[in-house]
Amino acid sequence: MTPCMEEEIRVRAGDVDDAPAVADVWLRSRTASIPSMPAPTHPEEAVRDWFSGVVLPTLDVWVASSGDGHIVGLLVLDGHWVDQLYVDPDWFGRGSGSRLLALAKRLRPTGLDLWTFASNRGARRFYERHGFSAIDSTDHDNEEAAPAIHYRWVP
Question: Which helix (DSSP H) or strand (DSSP E) does residue 86 occupy?
Answer without folding.
Answer: strand 81-87
